[in-house]
Amino acid sequence: MQSSKPSMPAVIAHCDWSKDPKKRWMTVAIRSGDCWAAYAPEPVSVTADLLDRLEMRAIEPGPLFVGFDFPIGLPLQYALRTGFKNFREALKHFGDGQWAQWFIVANDATEVSLRRPFYPQRPNGKRRADLIERLGVAKMEELLRVYERRTSDRLAASSLFWTLGPSQVGKATISGWREVIKPSVLTDRILLWPFDGALSELFGKGKPVLAETYPGETYVQIGIPHRCTGSKKKRGGRLSASPYLNDWLGHRPVVPEPQLCAAIADGFGDAACSEDQFDAVVGLFGMIDVAIGVRTDGVPEDEDIRRWEGWILGQSPGMGCTHLPGWGTPRQS
């Protein structure tokens, strides 16, 4: 007899995202009673029916819980000038009507505006100062969300709107919002954490719940220590993390499928997508910890964060980034 836990996800999936569809990988866990079967990383594939495909894999009652490794939310100083009431409302308008160019990356600084904030399409001498000036802020920090800002433990992240450099996230965010988030918001298909409420509340409503994740914050959270050697970009570095991934599995109600066990034991191989697959697995493990209550969702009791900026799932309020040397690299798209 199957157990009924409608307030617990039936399927959890973590998507390691990229502007390049070939570099989008996801790892899925499916609940059966009190246990989870975790599968090997697989391509995200067509995004238009992604949520449908994931929901069809459920064998128990309960919602779908999906994490995406790209920002979900807006920096407050920018958001307040849009005239909308919250992030969800703004997202419905971005790309349409007066906001038709919002998702189009500006080629020249003169094209940058409140309604076309992403810049630049190509380098060729483009400056952050141009973005700052055209968006009417005093400094780049005002184009960062709270948890993206510099602390004593970490460097500042790249602004959502700056689309150059290895740490830029803008172009991946554009694809994620246009292909998955916005269409689902327009049809009222999904719930967005933390904008629509606490996870425990959202899980009880039956709709898919989508959240922002960041594997760079998850390594230490799931037990990968600072003494790991090498870089996660290299197979040797990923191999050094394998014992800790297996240890995590040994202390959770999660049964890895044979292909996942083989991937972990092999350091996820030497393919161009190996790092993406590794992060898809790490992100899934972090999501499971939050879903089963090992770790809190971490979102602060701050109206601006819950209405506009959003939060990284599982990151504790006020906590410095726990990046490992050579591991906690900036998000890349």
Task: Provide the succession of SSEs.
Answer: EEEEHEHHHHEHEHHEHHH
**How confident overall, as mean pLDDT?**
92
Poorly predicted ranges (pLDDT <50, ≥5 residues)? 319-326
Estimated radius of gyration: 19 Å
**Separation of the first and last Cα atoms:** 44 Å
* Topology, number of strands: 8
| Range of helix content | 25-40%
Number of helices: 11
Shape: globular
Please give a structural write-up.
By secondary structure, this protein is of the alpha/beta class. It folds into 2 domains: 197 residues; 78 residues, no CATH class. It contains 11 helices and 8 strands. Strands 1, 2, 3, 4, 5, 6, 7 and 8 form an 8-stranded mixed β-sheet that branches. Strand 1 and strand 2 form a beta hairpin. Helix 8 packs parallel to helix 10. About 2% of the residues have low confidence.
Give descriptors for this structure.
10% strand, 333 residues, eight-stranded mixed beta sheet, 2 domains, alpha/beta
Structure summarized in a few sentences:
This protein is an alpha/beta fold. It has 2 domains: 11-71 and 174-309; 94-171, no CATH class. The chain is 31% helix and 10% strand.
